[in-house]
UniProtKB/TrEMBL annotation:
The keyword Calcium does not apply. This is Histidine phosphatase superfamily. Pfam families: His_Phos_2 (PF00328). It comes from the Eukaryota. Residues 167-187 are annotated as: Disordered. One of its GO terms (cellular component) is fungal-type cell wall. Residues 1-19 form the signal peptide. GO terms for molecular function: acid phosphatase activity. Keywords: Disulfide bond, Glycoprotein, Hydrolase, Signal. Transmembrane segments: none annotated. The keyword Transmembrane does not apply. Disulfide bonds join C50-C371, C189-C426, C237-C250, C395-C403. PANTHER family: ACID PHOSPHATASE, PUTATIVE-RELATED (PTHR20963:SF14), MULTIPLE INOSITOL POLYPHOSPHATE PHOSPHATASE-RELATED (PTHR20963).
Length: 442
């Protein structure tokens, strides 16, 4: 009796009853809708003998109710269909909750910051303060002008400093006429299109949703689930979590771990061809921020110790390309870009994972450090961290996979040779477009 009880408990706990311990959190696989999270692979602490003396940050805004496109394309069609259906959900297994579930999203709030988003921004401010306890409060924090970026910057400043009136929030126009001189340079680049990647990702959408559709249609034949319904439901896991704190759509009984990985891979394909290595213009869009940051960090003197800028999801991945990080082809000795992201099955070994690159509040940091470290020359070193996870650049030759000053300077110059010429490559309609990001010099 007792043994049988223990046994059935053990079986219930082991997913698939294989006896192997397997932990899976769907919230870490939701790409652009992933709630803020950190999962550093390398040690985020400054390497032994090093002190951070200056840093620049690029931050995506925090959690919003829903992105217009996700809402109109996937979520609203699903919730409309749901409110119309005569299908009964009671007894439909893991779909049972749909009999009482109400959507947390309404048209009016769509792109607004959620309360969870505001809290996460504030916490990031606190965490940055704790990371650099000796830094003076910055005179300025920059943000693009959308309400969700402005409010993220505001909450961040409140968490970072004690006298918020002494840190100015500088609004940077999102207009396309700014060329490269904004925190939204893709707006000023006609060679970029927000629809890039949809065609490729929809191929894989049909692959990974097929078994889910069949399972759901067996549970409730009256609803006629489609691939877009499935995507909308998986998106709701993320959005509902950042609105209400949790969501029944995140249940692992509803979608199995591999099915969340399928959702993630579909998004990774989209971002890969939209703002990643699969789009030729990506590095050109990301380079101005990289170069402006490098100039601030390499200068002998600077107005601030900390430079933080808030933007949208498009910019961080282009900066990743400009930096050469999350490159699926790295260490392969070849550069077969498209082959690294097949459209018919996931490449589980890829490093291009949008959940790590552009979750809500995603932040890219470049730190300047003063080091007296065993085995290295003393001097200044530079290191990149994405969501606190150190990312070795090609120039890494210093402690903690940082780059020495010389190597970093040469690296930036080499990236510039590959990715400079924003105006020439983007061919904007404006005759006053610029190649440089100058907002920090004013
Ligand atoms: C819901 O039902 C109404 C009335 O039958 C219909 O006009 C509308 O197109 C339906 N909407 C959806 C999303 O199925
Ligand atoms: C900010 O507010 C504090 C307290 O109200 C005040 O002492 C200080 O002078 C203000 N600073 C600026 C730059 O306005
Ligand atoms: C280009 O001109 C427009 C219109 O006068 C102006 O708003 C914009 O700031 C200018 N762009 C740059 C990069 O100076
Ligand atoms: C990605 O890695 C490949 C292989 O090392 C390299 O040829 C290519 O230039 C890299 N791409 C970028 C944008 O850095
Ligand atoms: C890679 O895919 C893109 C987008 O589909 C396409 O434009 C490009 O030609 C492909 N590159 C190669 C080398 O096949
Ligand atoms: C780092 O900071 C500590 C504490 O302020 C100081 O003792 C040490 O000398 C500094 N090291 C370097 C390399 O600047
Ligand atoms: C990088 O920025 C510096 C300082 O603004 C500028 O002089 C240089 O031309 C920029 N490099 C490229 C390749 O755009
Ligand atoms: C840019 O275009 C405007 C309007 O066509 C024109 O008035 C202006 O002189 C042009 N500026 C330059 C620098 O060519």
């Amino acid at each position: 009796m007792f043994i049988a009880a223990i046994l059935s408990l053990a079986l219930a706990n082991a997913a698939g009853a294989s006896g192997v311990k397997y932990h899976f959190d769907p919230l870490h696989h939701l790409a652009g809708i992933a709630p803020t999270f950190e999962d550093p692979q390398l040690d985020p602490a400054a390497p032994q003998g090093c002190n951070v003396t200056r840093a620049t940050y690029l931050v995506r805004h925090a959690a919003i109710y829903a992105n217009d496109f996700d809402y109109e394309e996937y979520i609203e069609p699903f919730t409309d269909k749901l409110s119309n259906t005569t299908a009964r959900w009671r007894g439909a297994g893991p779909l049972d909750f749909l009999s009482t579930w109400q959507s947390p999203i309404s048209d009016e709030e769509l792109e607004d910051l959620t309360t969870v988003g505001r809290l996460e921004s504030y916490k990031l401010g606190v965490n940055v303060h704790l990371r650099y306890p000796t830094f003076k409060a910055p005179k300025k924090v920059w943000t693009s002008t959308a309400e969700r970026t402005e409010l993220s910057a505001k909450a961040f400043i409140e968490g970072l400093v004690t006298q918020t009136n002494e840190t100015q929030r500088v609004s940077v126009s999102e207009d396309e006429s700014e060329g490269a001189d904004s925190l939204t340079p893709y707006e000023g680049c006609p060679k970029y299109s927000s629809s890039y990647g949809s065609e490729q990702s929809s191929k894989f959408r049909d692959v990974y949703t097929k078994p889910i559709i069949e399972r759901f249609n067996q549970l409730q034949p009256g609803f006629h689930f489609t691939a877009k319904d499935i995507v909308g439901m998986q998106q709701l896991c993320g959005y509902e979590t950042v609105i209400r704190g949790s969501s029944p759509f995140c249940s692992l009984e509803l979608f199995l771990p591999d099915e969340w990985l399928g959702f993630e891979y579909m998004n990774d394909i989209m971002y890969f061809y939209n703002t990643g290595y699969g789009n030729e213009i990506s590095g050109t869009i990301g380079f101005p921020w990289l170069n402006a940051s490098a100039s601030l960090l390499l200068a002998d003197e600077a107005d601030q110790e900390l430079y933080v800028s808030f933007t949208h999801r498009e910019l961080p991945p282009t900066v990743a390309v400009a930096m050469g990080i999350f490159n699926n082809s790295a260490f392969t000795g070849a550069n077969h870009i498209n082959e690294t992201m097949p459209l018919n099955k996931p490449n589980h070994g890829r490093v291009w994972k949008s959940s790590n690159i552009l979750p809500f509040l995603s932040n890219f940091a470049i730190e300047k450090m003063e080091c007296e470290s065993y085995g290295f020359d003393s001097g200044d070193y530079f290191r990149v961290l994405v969501n606190s996870s150190p990312q070795p650049l090609e120039c890494a030759d210093g402690p903690g996979e940082s780059c020495s000053e010389n190597a970093f300077e040469q690296f930036i110059q080499a990236r510039g040779e590959e990715f400079s010429g924003f105006t020439e490559k983007c061919q904007p309609d404006y005759n006053n477009s610029t190649d440089l990001l100058t907002i920090y010099n004013m």
